[in-house]
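Weekly modeling sync, notes
Attendees: S.R. (lead), two postdocs, one rotation student

Agenda item 3: backlog of single-chain predictions. S.R. asked that every request posted to the team notebook include the full sequence so nobody has to chase files. The rotation student volunteered to paste the first one in as an example of the format we agreed on. Action items at the bottom.

Example entry:
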Amino acid sequence: MSTPVYELHSDTGNRMFVKRDDLLSFGLGGNKVRIANAFFDDMKEKNCDTMIAYGSTSSNLCRVIANRCAIEQIPCYIICSHSESEASDTVTSNTRLMELLGASMIPCKKNAIAQAVEDTRNRLLGAGRKPYYIYGNKYGTGNEGVAARAYADAYQEIIEAEHTLGITFDYLFHASGTGATQSGLICGHLLHGDAKKIVGISVSRDRKRGSSIIAQGVTSLLAEKGFPREFSLSEEILLEDEYRRGGYGLYDEAILACIQREFRTNSLPLDPVYTGKAFLGMEEYLKKHQIKEKNILFLHTGGTPLFYDCLNRGELTAFGKENLC
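Predicted structure, as returned to the notebook:
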């Protein structure tokens, strides 16, 4: 499942590389392919027969899970939340794909997620099904270690890329949403005993809440693996929440300009919800902390359908001919 790592054109004063997990060969790619695989393995171990997932209308994870369920003919229920200011029938390319794949969509407000999970689970149990909810209990806790496994395992690919390129990455940046990817990367870093700094650019949660969830994933997985060494979670969890642009799903002209620039400069398709926000946040972080002459790896966590949403809405504009050279 290895994905390419290569150098980008950049004017940050650092050597910039990208790992293209958006090119994973399933369900339009992305980090959620690896994470979904971990959930499906756990589901099978627990002898469950019906999948319950949760996400927003922009959720890449729900898109991938719906795809896997369609292939394996597993009933799939997607609890899809929306904010107070967002219509319950908001449509994105991801929601279109979920519906195309036959997932049952259950809209709810953000303050009613736990109730929606419980109602769905009870309805399925009453029908004789054995439902599996990806996040554990109805409050979304209890399964953090499962999701973290995916990127603890994938970390070996980063080590192999270093050997191939003949360098060592000093920093690894990525979009941090549910916290699963960052939990796994931190575990991989600790298990390998290297000096990398894993920096998550939050696209949703504040630092306190996000760090708590990441900590649960790290401690759960390391306990499972019998990790013997003491470490400081406060030093390992670097979650930056000042680049959220107001919160999940919100973005501004600076993010759109970053998406446009990176596609023109590096043929890198970013999206405004996850990777575009994270890429710009990374650049601002490097500038703020005056980081120069380092080897930086950006983990492209996917979101291709959302790139096209942005394009179809006309938010990416054409450059004049005078700017093409």
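Discussion: group reviewed the output briefly. The longest strand covers residues 50-56.
Action items: rotation student to repeat for the remaining queue; S.R. to check formatting next week.
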